[in-house]
Amino acid sequence: MRSIVWFRGKDLRLADHAPLAEAAASGEVIPLFVLDPFFFAPERARELPHRIQFLLDSLRALEANLAHLGSRLLVVPGRSLEVVPRLAAQWKADQVLAHRWVEPFGRERDRRIAEALDREGIALRLFEGETLLPPGSVRNGQGAMFRVFTPFARAAGIRLDLAPALPAPRALPPVPEGSVFETAPIPTLADLGLSLNPNLQAGGERAARTRLKAFVGGPIVDYGADRDRMDRPGTSRLSADLKFGTLSVRMVWQAAAAAGAGESGRRFLNELLWREFSHHLLWEWPELLEQPFRGDFSSFPWRVDEAGWQAWAAGRTGYPVVDAAARQLLAEGFVHNRARMVAASFLAKHLLLDYRLGEAHYLKWLTDGDWAQNSAGWQWSAGCGCDAQPWFRIFNPVAQGLKFDPDGAYVKRWVPELADCPTAFIHEPWKLPRGRRVSLDYPEPVVDHALARQRFLATAKGHLGRGPA
Ligand SMILES: Cc1cc2nc3c(=O)[nH]c(=O)nc-3n(C[C@H](O)[C@H](O)[C@H](O)COP(=O)(O)OP(=O)(O)OC[C@H]3O[C@@H](n4cnc5c(N)ncnc54)[C@H](O)[C@@H]3O)c2cc1C
Protein backbone atom coordinates (compact mmCIF):
# COMPACT_ATOMS: atom_id res chain seq x y z
CA MET A 1 0.00 0.00 0.00
CA ARG A 2 1.38 3.41 -0.93
CA SER A 3 -0.12 6.35 1.00
CA ILE A 4 0.27 10.07 0.67
CA VAL A 5 -0.02 11.71 4.09
CA TRP A 6 -1.21 15.19 3.30
CA PHE A 7 -0.25 17.59 6.10
CA ARG A 8 -2.53 20.61 5.83
CA GLY A 9 -1.41 23.21 8.30
CA LYS A 10 -3.60 22.13 11.20
CA ASP A 11 -1.68 18.96 12.07
CA LEU A 12 2.00 19.91 11.92
CA ARG A 13 3.23 17.14 14.21
CA LEU A 14 4.29 13.50 14.29
CA ALA A 15 2.72 12.48 17.60
CA ASP A 16 -0.97 11.58 17.73
CA HIS A 17 -1.25 11.86 13.98
CA ALA A 18 -3.75 9.22 12.89
CA PRO A 19 -3.17 9.53 9.10
CA LEU A 20 0.60 9.14 9.57
CA ALA A 21 0.21 6.21 11.97
CA GLU A 22 -2.21 4.50 9.58
CA ALA A 23 0.03 5.06 6.56
CA ALA A 24 3.14 3.84 8.39
CA ALA A 25 1.35 0.68 9.45
CA SER A 26 0.21 -0.11 5.92
CA GLY A 27 3.32 0.35 3.77
CA GLU A 28 5.00 3.17 1.87
CA VAL A 29 4.53 6.74 3.11
CA ILE A 30 4.83 9.96 1.13
CA PRO A 31 4.51 13.02 3.40
CA LEU A 32 3.21 16.00 1.42
CA PHE A 33 2.63 19.68 2.10
CA VAL A 34 1.13 21.85 -0.64
CA LEU A 35 2.10 25.52 -0.80
CA ASP A 36 -1.33 26.61 -1.99
CA PRO A 37 -1.49 30.20 -3.25
CA PHE A 38 -4.75 30.51 -1.29
CA PHE A 39 -2.44 31.10 1.71
CA PHE A 40 1.06 31.42 0.24
CA ALA A 41 0.67 33.91 -2.60
CA PRO A 42 2.50 36.97 -1.20
CA GLU A 43 -0.65 39.12 -1.35
CA ARG A 44 -2.50 36.46 0.67
CA ALA A 45 0.36 35.87 3.12
CA ARG A 46 0.36 39.59 3.92
CA GLU A 47 -3.20 39.12 5.19
CA LEU A 48 -2.06 36.62 7.83
CA PRO A 49 1.56 37.44 8.64
CA HIS A 50 1.72 36.05 12.17
CA ARG A 51 0.01 32.81 11.28
CA ILE A 52 2.41 32.37 8.35
CA GLN A 53 5.42 32.93 10.60
CA PHE A 54 4.25 30.30 13.08
CA LEU A 55 3.32 27.93 10.28
CA LEU A 56 6.70 28.23 8.54
CA ASP A 57 8.47 27.55 11.85
CA SER A 58 6.30 24.50 12.37
CA LEU A 59 6.80 23.30 8.82
CA ARG A 60 10.58 23.49 9.15
CA ALA A 61 10.38 21.51 12.39
CA LEU A 62 8.15 18.92 10.74
CA GLU A 63 10.57 18.63 7.83
CA ALA A 64 13.48 18.03 10.22
CA ASN A 65 11.51 15.56 12.34
CA LEU A 66 10.44 13.53 9.30
CA ALA A 67 14.03 13.47 8.03
CA HIS A 68 15.15 12.26 11.44
CA LEU A 69 12.82 9.27 11.08
CA GLY A 70 14.19 8.44 7.61
CA SER A 71 11.44 10.05 5.54
CA ARG A 72 11.14 13.36 3.72
CA LEU A 73 8.53 16.10 3.58
CA LEU A 74 7.72 16.86 -0.05
CA VAL A 75 6.78 20.52 -0.32
CA VAL A 76 5.01 21.24 -3.58
CA PRO A 77 3.75 24.63 -4.76
CA GLY A 78 0.39 24.86 -6.53
CA ARG A 79 -3.35 24.70 -5.99
CA SER A 80 -4.29 21.72 -3.82
CA LEU A 81 -7.22 20.99 -6.12
CA GLU A 82 -4.81 20.36 -8.99
CA VAL A 83 -1.64 19.23 -7.22
CA VAL A 84 -3.01 16.49 -5.00
CA PRO A 85 -4.90 14.47 -7.63
CA ARG A 86 -2.09 14.92 -10.15
CA LEU A 87 0.68 13.84 -7.79
CA ALA A 88 -1.37 10.99 -6.37
CA ALA A 89 -1.76 9.62 -9.90
CA GLN A 90 1.89 10.30 -10.85
CA TRP A 91 3.16 8.73 -7.67
CA LYS A 92 0.83 5.77 -8.10
CA ALA A 93 -0.56 6.24 -4.61
CA ASP A 94 -3.33 3.97 -3.39
CA GLN A 95 -4.76 6.48 -0.96
CA VAL A 96 -4.43 10.03 0.33
CA LEU A 97 -4.79 10.40 4.08
CA ALA A 98 -5.45 13.68 5.87
CA HIS A 99 -7.20 15.25 8.84
CA ARG A 100 -10.70 16.64 8.39
CA TRP A 101 -11.26 20.42 8.42
CA VAL A 102 -14.54 21.88 9.68
CA GLU A 103 -14.51 25.13 7.66
CA PRO A 104 -16.88 25.30 4.69
CA PHE A 105 -14.10 26.15 2.23
CA GLY A 106 -12.01 23.22 3.50
CA ARG A 107 -14.97 20.87 3.17
CA GLU A 108 -15.63 22.05 -0.37
CA ARG A 109 -11.93 21.60 -1.25
CA ASP A 110 -12.01 18.07 0.13
CA ARG A 111 -15.21 17.22 -1.71
CA ARG A 112 -13.72 18.29 -5.01
CA ILE A 113 -10.40 16.55 -4.39
CA ALA A 114 -12.15 13.35 -3.33
CA GLU A 115 -14.08 13.43 -6.63
CA ALA A 116 -10.94 14.00 -8.68
CA LEU A 117 -9.06 11.24 -6.86
CA ASP A 118 -12.00 8.91 -7.22
CA ARG A 119 -11.78 9.28 -11.00
CA GLU A 120 -8.24 7.87 -10.69
CA GLY A 121 -9.41 5.08 -8.40
CA ILE A 122 -7.63 6.63 -5.41
CA ALA A 123 -9.34 7.14 -2.05
CA LEU A 124 -9.22 10.32 0.03
CA ARG A 125 -9.54 9.21 3.65
CA LEU A 126 -10.22 11.91 6.21
CA PHE A 127 -9.41 11.32 9.88
CA GLU A 128 -10.77 13.04 12.96
CA GLY A 129 -8.33 14.83 15.22
CA GLU A 130 -8.92 18.56 15.06
CA THR A 131 -11.58 18.13 17.71
CA LEU A 132 -11.99 15.73 20.63
CA LEU A 133 -15.17 14.26 19.15
CA PRO A 134 -16.14 14.16 15.48
CA PRO A 135 -17.90 17.38 14.48
CA GLY A 136 -21.62 16.78 14.20
CA SER A 137 -21.54 13.83 16.59
CA VAL A 138 -22.73 15.56 19.77
CA ARG A 139 -26.52 15.82 19.52
CA ASN A 140 -29.44 16.45 21.84
CA GLY A 141 -32.37 14.08 22.42
CA GLN A 142 -34.01 15.26 19.19
CA GLY A 143 -30.84 14.58 17.21
CA ALA A 144 -30.07 18.29 16.75
CA MET A 145 -26.93 20.29 17.51
CA PHE A 146 -27.04 22.02 20.89
CA ARG A 147 -27.64 25.76 20.90
CA VAL A 148 -26.43 26.20 24.47
CA PHE A 149 -22.91 25.45 25.68
CA THR A 150 -23.61 23.81 29.06
CA PRO A 151 -25.75 20.91 27.79
CA PHE A 152 -23.35 20.52 24.86
CA ALA A 153 -20.43 20.24 27.29
CA ARG A 154 -22.38 17.78 29.45
CA ALA A 155 -23.26 15.59 26.47
CA ALA A 156 -19.69 15.78 25.13
CA GLY A 157 -18.30 14.99 28.58
CA ILE A 158 -20.29 11.76 28.77
CA ARG A 159 -18.70 10.62 25.52
CA LEU A 160 -15.18 11.74 26.32
CA ASP A 161 -13.68 8.39 27.04
CA LEU A 162 -10.73 9.15 24.79
CA ALA A 163 -8.39 6.46 23.52
CA PRO A 164 -4.74 7.15 24.42
CA ALA A 165 -2.92 9.56 22.11
CA LEU A 166 -0.89 7.80 19.41
CA PRO A 167 2.88 7.89 19.83
CA ALA A 168 5.02 9.35 17.05
CA PRO A 169 6.37 6.63 14.73
CA ARG A 170 9.87 5.48 15.72
CA ALA A 171 10.96 5.27 12.08
CA LEU A 172 9.44 5.77 8.65
CA PRO A 173 10.25 4.18 5.31
CA PRO A 174 12.09 6.42 2.83
CA VAL A 175 9.84 8.09 0.28
CA PRO A 176 9.63 5.80 -2.77
CA GLU A 177 12.08 6.39 -5.62
CA GLY A 178 10.79 8.71 -8.29
CA SER A 179 8.36 10.60 -6.10
CA VAL A 180 10.52 13.64 -5.61
CA PHE A 181 9.32 15.81 -8.48
CA GLU A 182 8.12 19.40 -8.44
CA THR A 183 9.24 20.03 -4.89
CA ALA A 184 10.34 23.41 -3.63
CA PRO A 185 12.10 24.52 -0.48
CA ILE A 186 9.93 25.80 2.35
CA PRO A 187 9.70 29.54 1.63
CA THR A 188 11.24 32.06 3.97
CA LEU A 189 9.28 34.99 5.33
CA ALA A 190 11.27 37.23 2.98
CA ASP A 191 10.20 35.08 -0.01
CA LEU A 192 6.63 35.96 0.92
CA GLY A 193 7.38 39.63 1.42
CA LEU A 194 7.06 39.42 5.22
CA SER A 195 9.42 40.42 7.99
CA LEU A 196 10.10 38.48 11.15
CA ASN A 197 8.19 39.47 14.27
CA PRO A 198 10.56 38.48 17.11
CA ASN A 199 7.74 38.75 19.67
CA LEU A 200 5.80 35.76 18.38
CA GLN A 201 5.89 32.33 19.96
CA ALA A 202 8.13 29.81 18.21
CA GLY A 203 6.27 27.17 16.25
CA GLY A 204 7.11 23.48 15.95
CA GLU A 205 6.32 20.37 17.90
CA ARG A 206 9.15 20.63 20.38
CA ALA A 207 8.33 24.20 21.40
CA ALA A 208 4.69 23.16 21.76
CA ARG A 209 5.53 20.24 24.04
CA THR A 210 7.71 22.49 26.16
CA ARG A 211 4.79 24.92 26.59
CA LEU A 212 2.41 22.11 27.47
CA LYS A 213 4.82 20.61 29.97
CA ALA A 214 5.44 23.97 31.60
CA PHE A 215 1.71 24.66 31.93
CA VAL A 216 0.59 21.31 33.33
CA GLY A 217 3.63 21.28 35.60
CA GLY A 218 2.71 24.54 37.31
CA PRO A 219 0.28 27.30 36.31
CA ILE A 220 -2.64 24.91 35.72
CA VAL A 221 -3.05 24.68 39.50
CA ASP A 222 -3.97 28.36 39.70
CA TYR A 223 -5.76 28.53 36.36
CA GLY A 224 -9.18 28.96 37.97
CA ALA A 225 -8.07 32.09 39.83
CA ASP A 226 -5.65 33.49 37.27
CA ARG A 227 -7.23 32.83 33.89
CA ASP A 228 -9.13 36.13 33.88
CA ARG A 229 -6.24 38.22 35.16
CA MET A 230 -4.84 40.18 32.25
CA ASP A 231 -1.77 41.07 34.30
CA ARG A 232 -0.76 37.46 35.02
CA PRO A 233 0.63 34.74 32.76
CA GLY A 234 -2.02 32.38 34.09
CA THR A 235 -3.23 30.70 30.91
CA SER A 236 -1.62 27.98 28.84
CA ARG A 237 -0.74 30.01 25.72
CA LEU A 238 -1.40 26.83 23.71
CA SER A 239 -3.92 28.36 21.31
CA ALA A 240 -1.54 28.57 18.34
CA ASP A 241 -0.39 25.00 18.99
CA LEU A 242 -3.99 23.85 18.92
CA LYS A 243 -4.67 25.92 15.83
CA PHE A 244 -1.72 24.54 13.85
CA GLY A 245 -1.81 21.12 15.45
CA THR A 246 1.72 21.14 16.80
CA LEU A 247 -0.16 19.46 19.64
CA SER A 248 -3.37 17.52 19.22
CA VAL A 249 -6.26 18.62 21.38
CA ARG A 250 -6.41 15.07 22.71
CA MET A 251 -2.81 15.34 23.96
CA VAL A 252 -3.58 18.62 25.67
CA TRP A 253 -6.77 17.23 27.19
CA GLN A 254 -5.03 14.13 28.51
CA ALA A 255 -2.02 16.00 29.88
CA ALA A 256 -4.31 18.46 31.68
CA ALA A 257 -6.58 15.71 33.02
CA ALA A 258 -3.54 13.83 34.33
CA ALA A 259 -2.18 16.90 36.09
CA GLY A 260 -4.59 16.41 38.99
CA ALA A 261 -5.25 20.14 39.27
CA GLY A 262 -8.72 19.83 40.83
CA GLU A 263 -11.22 22.60 40.10
CA SER A 264 -8.62 24.63 38.21
CA GLY A 265 -7.94 21.66 35.96
CA ARG A 266 -11.67 21.29 35.32
CA ARG A 267 -11.92 24.96 34.36
CA PHE A 268 -9.16 24.45 31.84
CA LEU A 269 -10.84 21.38 30.34
CA ASN A 270 -14.03 23.43 30.14
CA GLU A 271 -12.21 25.97 27.95
CA LEU A 272 -11.16 23.14 25.65
CA LEU A 273 -14.85 22.31 25.42
CA TRP A 274 -15.60 25.91 24.37
CA ARG A 275 -13.11 25.30 21.59
CA GLU A 276 -14.93 22.09 20.78
CA PHE A 277 -18.31 23.88 20.81
CA SER A 278 -17.15 26.50 18.32
CA HIS A 279 -15.95 23.85 15.88
CA HIS A 280 -19.13 21.83 16.16
CA LEU A 281 -21.16 25.02 15.63
CA LEU A 282 -19.30 25.85 12.45
CA TRP A 283 -19.71 22.31 11.19
CA GLU A 284 -23.46 22.56 11.72
CA TRP A 285 -23.88 26.13 10.48
CA PRO A 286 -21.13 26.90 7.92
CA GLU A 287 -22.75 30.28 7.24
CA LEU A 288 -21.49 31.49 10.65
CA LEU A 289 -18.30 32.73 8.99
CA GLU A 290 -20.44 35.28 7.16
CA GLN A 291 -23.62 35.73 9.16
CA PRO A 292 -24.63 36.16 12.80
CA PHE A 293 -26.15 33.09 14.44
CA ARG A 294 -29.16 35.16 15.50
CA GLY A 295 -31.16 35.91 12.39
CA ASP A 296 -32.62 39.07 13.94
CA PHE A 297 -29.11 40.56 13.93
CA SER A 298 -28.59 40.04 10.21
CA SER A 299 -29.59 43.54 9.11
CA PHE A 300 -28.46 45.25 12.30
CA PRO A 301 -27.92 49.00 11.77
CA TRP A 302 -24.19 49.09 12.46
CA ARG A 303 -22.66 52.55 12.09
CA VAL A 304 -20.00 53.63 9.65
CA ASP A 305 -17.33 55.53 11.55
CA GLU A 306 -13.89 55.47 10.00
CA ALA A 307 -12.31 57.57 12.77
CA GLY A 308 -13.75 55.30 15.47
CA TRP A 309 -12.55 52.22 13.62
CA GLN A 310 -9.03 53.62 13.18
CA ALA A 311 -8.85 54.56 16.86
CA TRP A 312 -9.95 51.07 17.91
CA ALA A 313 -7.57 49.25 15.56
CA ALA A 314 -4.56 51.40 16.49
CA GLY A 315 -5.25 51.36 20.25
CA ARG A 316 -6.14 55.06 20.55
CA THR A 317 -9.70 54.98 21.94
CA GLY A 318 -8.74 56.51 25.27
CA TYR A 319 -9.95 53.39 27.12
CA PRO A 320 -6.76 51.77 28.45
CA VAL A 321 -7.76 48.09 28.40
CA VAL A 322 -9.26 48.39 24.93
CA ASP A 323 -6.11 50.09 23.70
CA ALA A 324 -3.78 47.61 25.41
CA ALA A 325 -5.63 44.78 23.65
CA ALA A 326 -5.25 46.45 20.25
CA ARG A 327 -1.57 47.01 20.74
CA GLN A 328 -0.85 43.57 22.17
CA LEU A 329 -2.49 42.11 19.08
CA LEU A 330 -0.24 43.97 16.66
CA ALA A 331 2.91 43.49 18.74
CA GLU A 332 2.56 39.86 19.83
CA GLY A 333 -0.12 38.31 17.63
CA PHE A 334 -1.93 37.43 20.83
CA VAL A 335 -4.49 39.05 23.14
CA HIS A 336 -5.53 37.85 26.58
CA ASN A 337 -9.02 36.32 26.47
CA ARG A 338 -10.52 38.86 28.88
CA ALA A 339 -9.02 41.71 26.86
CA ARG A 340 -10.40 40.15 23.65
CA MET A 341 -13.87 40.16 25.17
CA VAL A 342 -13.63 43.76 26.38
CA ALA A 343 -12.16 45.03 23.10
CA ALA A 344 -14.67 43.15 20.95
CA SER A 345 -17.60 44.30 23.02
CA PHE A 346 -16.31 47.89 22.81
CA LEU A 347 -16.13 47.77 19.02
CA ALA A 348 -19.62 46.34 18.58
CA LYS A 349 -21.44 48.03 21.44
CA HIS A 350 -19.66 51.27 22.34
CA LEU A 351 -18.72 52.15 18.77
CA LEU A 352 -21.67 50.33 17.17
CA LEU A 353 -19.40 49.03 14.43
CA ASP A 354 -20.07 45.77 12.62
CA TYR A 355 -18.40 43.00 14.63
CA ARG A 356 -17.19 41.49 11.32
CA LEU A 357 -14.70 44.37 10.94
CA GLY A 358 -13.06 43.34 14.20
CA GLU A 359 -13.37 39.66 13.39
CA ALA A 360 -11.42 40.14 10.16
CA HIS A 361 -8.82 42.33 11.88
CA TYR A 362 -8.25 39.67 14.55
CA LEU A 363 -8.06 36.94 11.95
CA LYS A 364 -5.39 38.94 10.17
CA TRP A 365 -3.16 39.56 13.18
CA LEU A 366 -3.73 36.72 15.66
CA THR A 367 -1.22 33.87 15.53
CA ASP A 368 -3.98 31.63 16.85
CA GLY A 369 -6.48 33.16 14.38
CA ASP A 370 -8.93 30.34 13.86
CA TRP A 371 -12.08 30.62 11.78
CA ALA A 372 -14.35 28.72 14.15
CA GLN A 373 -13.11 30.15 17.45
CA ASN A 374 -12.67 33.70 16.21
CA SER A 375 -16.11 33.82 14.68
CA ALA A 376 -17.66 32.36 17.84
CA GLY A 377 -15.68 34.77 20.06
CA TRP A 378 -16.78 37.81 18.09
CA GLN A 379 -20.39 36.76 17.89
CA TRP A 380 -20.39 35.98 21.60
CA SER A 381 -19.04 39.44 22.36
CA ALA A 382 -21.40 41.26 20.01
CA GLY A 383 -24.38 39.40 21.46
CA CYS A 384 -25.47 37.85 18.18
CA GLY A 385 -23.92 34.40 18.54
CA CYS A 386 -25.00 31.00 19.74
CA ASP A 387 -25.24 31.07 23.56
CA ALA A 388 -23.67 34.53 23.45
CA GLN A 389 -23.31 37.23 26.06
CA PRO A 390 -26.84 38.77 26.04
CA TRP A 391 -26.88 41.84 23.79
CA PHE A 392 -28.04 44.12 26.61
CA ARG A 393 -25.03 43.24 28.82
CA ILE A 394 -22.38 45.77 28.01
CA PHE A 395 -18.91 45.45 29.46
CA ASN A 396 -17.76 48.56 31.25
CA PRO A 397 -14.09 48.76 30.20
CA VAL A 398 -13.17 50.68 33.36
CA ALA A 399 -14.80 48.16 35.71
CA GLN A 400 -13.23 45.30 33.75
CA GLY A 401 -9.81 46.92 34.09
CA LEU A 402 -10.21 47.54 37.81
CA LYS A 403 -11.25 43.94 38.40
CA PHE A 404 -8.91 42.03 36.10
CA ASP A 405 -5.90 44.35 35.96
CA PRO A 406 -6.10 45.95 39.39
CA ASP A 407 -2.62 47.49 39.41
CA GLY A 408 -2.70 48.40 35.73
CA ALA A 409 0.30 46.22 34.90
CA TYR A 410 -1.31 44.93 31.69
CA VAL A 411 -2.17 48.44 30.57
CA LYS A 412 1.26 49.82 31.44
CA ARG A 413 2.96 47.06 29.49
CA TRP A 414 1.11 47.80 26.27
CA VAL A 415 0.31 51.49 26.55
CA PRO A 416 3.63 53.12 27.48
CA GLU A 417 2.06 56.61 27.44
CA LEU A 418 0.40 55.55 30.69
CA ALA A 419 3.59 54.29 32.35
CA ASP A 420 3.65 57.31 34.68
CA CYS A 421 -0.08 57.40 35.32
CA PRO A 422 -0.89 56.89 39.02
CA THR A 423 -2.45 53.47 39.60
CA ALA A 424 -5.61 55.04 40.99
CA PHE A 425 -6.29 56.58 37.56
CA ILE A 426 -4.84 53.91 35.30
CA HIS A 427 -8.20 52.73 33.96
CA GLU A 428 -9.73 56.21 33.73
CA PRO A 429 -6.87 58.60 33.04
CA TRP A 430 -9.31 61.31 31.95
CA LYS A 431 -10.10 61.79 35.64
CA LEU A 432 -6.58 63.02 36.34
CA PRO A 433 -6.32 66.77 36.87
CA ARG A 434 -6.13 68.36 33.43
CA GLY A 435 -2.46 69.46 33.59
CA ARG A 436 -1.22 65.99 34.43
CA ARG A 437 -3.40 64.43 31.76
CA VAL A 438 -1.73 66.39 28.99
CA SER A 439 1.71 65.17 30.03
CA LEU A 440 0.57 61.61 29.38
CA ASP A 441 0.10 62.15 25.63
CA TYR A 442 -2.87 59.80 25.71
CA PRO A 443 -6.17 60.47 23.90
CA GLU A 444 -9.40 61.49 25.58
CA PRO A 445 -12.11 58.77 25.35
CA VAL A 446 -13.60 58.56 21.86
CA VAL A 447 -17.03 57.97 23.39
CA ASP A 448 -18.54 58.45 26.82
CA HIS A 449 -19.28 55.04 28.35
CA ALA A 450 -22.76 55.91 29.65
CA LEU A 451 -23.86 57.61 26.42
CA ALA A 452 -22.44 54.86 24.23
CA ARG A 453 -24.21 52.28 26.34
CA GLN A 454 -27.54 54.08 25.99
CA ARG A 455 -27.00 54.48 22.26
CA PHE A 456 -26.39 50.77 21.78
CA LEU A 457 -29.33 49.74 23.94
CA ALA A 458 -31.68 52.13 22.11
CA THR A 459 -30.45 50.97 18.69
CA ALA A 460 -30.61 47.29 19.57
CA LYS A 461 -34.00 47.64 21.21
CA GLY A 462 -35.32 49.46 18.16
CA HIS A 463 -33.96 46.81 15.83
CA LEU A 464 -34.65 43.69 17.83
CA GLY A 465 -38.06 44.95 18.91
CA ARG A 466 -37.76 44.39 22.63
CA GLY A 467 -35.90 45.57 25.68
CA PRO A 468 -33.80 43.69 28.17
CA ALA A 469 -35.51 40.50 29.33
C1 LIG B 1 -13.30 38.15 20.25
C2 LIG B 1 -12.60 36.83 20.47
C3 LIG B 1 -11.86 36.24 19.46
C4 LIG B 1 -11.22 35.02 19.66
N1 LIG B 1 -10.50 34.46 18.63
C5 LIG B 1 -9.85 33.28 18.83
C6 LIG B 1 -9.10 32.69 17.78
O1 LIG B 1 -9.06 33.19 16.66
N2 LIG B 1 -8.43 31.54 18.05
C7 LIG B 1 -8.47 30.94 19.28
O2 LIG B 1 -7.82 29.92 19.48
N3 LIG B 1 -9.21 31.46 20.28
C8 LIG B 1 -9.89 32.61 20.10
N4 LIG B 1 -10.62 33.16 21.13
C9 LIG B 1 -10.74 32.41 22.39
C10 LIG B 1 -9.68 32.73 23.47
O3 LIG B 1 -9.54 34.10 23.63
C11 LIG B 1 -8.32 32.13 23.16
O4 LIG B 1 -8.44 30.77 22.82
C12 LIG B 1 -7.39 32.21 24.38
O5 LIG B 1 -7.23 33.55 24.78
C13 LIG B 1 -6.03 31.63 24.02
O6 LIG B 1 -5.15 31.73 25.08
P1 LIG B 1 -4.65 30.44 25.84
O7 LIG B 1 -4.20 29.40 24.88
O8 LIG B 1 -3.67 30.88 26.86
O9 LIG B 1 -6.01 29.95 26.51
P2 LIG B 1 -6.32 29.02 27.76
O10 LIG B 1 -7.13 29.82 28.71
O11 LIG B 1 -5.10 28.38 28.28
O12 LIG B 1 -7.31 27.94 27.13
C14 LIG B 1 -6.85 26.71 26.57
C15 LIG B 1 -7.40 26.56 25.18
O13 LIG B 1 -8.82 26.49 25.21
C16 LIG B 1 -9.35 27.14 24.06
N5 LIG B 1 -10.16 28.29 24.50
C17 LIG B 1 -9.96 29.05 25.59
N6 LIG B 1 -10.92 29.98 25.69
C18 LIG B 1 -11.74 29.80 24.65
C19 LIG B 1 -12.93 30.43 24.20
N7 LIG B 1 -13.48 31.46 24.87
N8 LIG B 1 -13.52 30.01 23.07
C20 LIG B 1 -13.00 28.97 22.37
N9 LIG B 1 -11.88 28.32 22.75
C21 LIG B 1 -11.26 28.72 23.88
C22 LIG B 1 -8.18 27.61 23.23
O14 LIG B 1 -7.90 26.65 22.24
C23 LIG B 1 -7.07 27.71 24.25
O15 LIG B 1 -5.79 27.59 23.72
C24 LIG B 1 -11.31 34.37 20.93
C25 LIG B 1 -12.06 34.96 21.95
C26 LIG B 1 -12.70 36.18 21.72
C27 LIG B 1 -13.51 36.78 22.84
Automatic annotation (TrEMBL):
Residues covered by the Photolyase/cryptochrome alpha/beta domain: 2-132
Q: Does the keyword Phosphoprotein apply?
A: no
- Which molecular-function annotations from GO does this UniProt entry contain? deoxyribodipyrimidine photo-lyase activity; DNA binding; FAD binding
Annotated residues for binding of FAD: Y223, T235, S236, R237, L238, S239, F268, D368, G369, D370
Cofactor requirements of the protein: FAD; (6R)-5,10-methylene-5,6,7,8-tetrahydrofolate
The entry's free-text remark on the cofactor is: Binds 1 FAD per subunit.
Task: Name the protein family.
Answer: Belongs to the DNA photolyase family.
- What name does this protein carry? Deoxyribodipyrimidine photo-lyase
- Species assigned in the record: Candidatus Geothrix odensensis
